[in-house]
Amino acid sequence: MQQYESVIILTPLLSEEVAKETIAKFKNILTEGGAEIVAEDNWGLKKLAYPIQKKTTGFYHLTEFKAPGELIQKLELEYKRDERVMRFLTIALDKHAVAYNEKKRSGAFNKKAETKTEEVAN
């Protein structure tokens, strides 16, 4: 199974509960299709770089998962059908991106910054 990363931007008109329900719907589509959720990151309400549908903010959510390739087509079709989704992007991760994401989740990048600050303090 290939590893993927999917970012969706939901309309800011939703309450946080409805946004969580929408994300749960897409997560359910993934798990029913045989995908394994590796990581999730809810970025919350962020300002957009440019207006989309006359809106300047949106709820961002990132999901990293392992899935068969056929499932991506079904997932993106559901993204397109759901009016709450303003934009989405799904990419296949290569081995370097997978390694980078694992290091980022484990906090390896933060540890290096901490040791540098300790060296400066001494």
From TrEMBL:
Asked if the Swiss-Prot or TrEMBL record annotates the protein with the keyword RNA-binding, the reply is yes
Q: Which GO terms describe its biological process?
A: translation
Q: Which GO terms describe its molecular function?
A: small ribosomal subunit rRNA binding; structural constituent of ribosome
Task: For this UniProt record, give its keywords in alphabetical order, as a comma-separated list.
Answer: Ribonucleoprotein, Ribosomal protein, RNA-binding, rRNA-binding
Please tell me whether the keyword Ligase is annotated for this protein: no
- Give the GO cellular component terms, alphabetically: cytoplasm; ribonucleoprotein complex; ribosome
Which SUPFAM superfamilies does its entry note? Ribosomal protein S6
Matching entries from InterPro entries are given as: Ribosomal_bS6, Ribosomal_bS6_sf, Ribosomal_S6_plastid/chlpt, Transl_elong_EF1B/ribsomal_bS6
Family the UniProt entry places it in: Belongs to the bacterial ribosomal protein bS6 family.
Query: What biological function has been recorded for the protein in this entry?
Result: Binds together with bS18 to 16S ribosomal RNA.
- PANTHER family assigned to the protein according to its UniProt record, in alphabetical order: MITOCHONDRIAL 28S RIBOSOMAL PROTEIN S6, SMALL RIBOSOMAL SUBUNIT PROTEIN BS6M
- NCBIfam families in the record, alphabetically? S6
- Please identify the protein, giving its name as recorded: Small ribosomal subunit protein bS6
Provide the taxonomic classification. Answer: Bacteria, Pseudomonadati, Bacteroidota, Sphingobacteriia, Sphingobacteriales
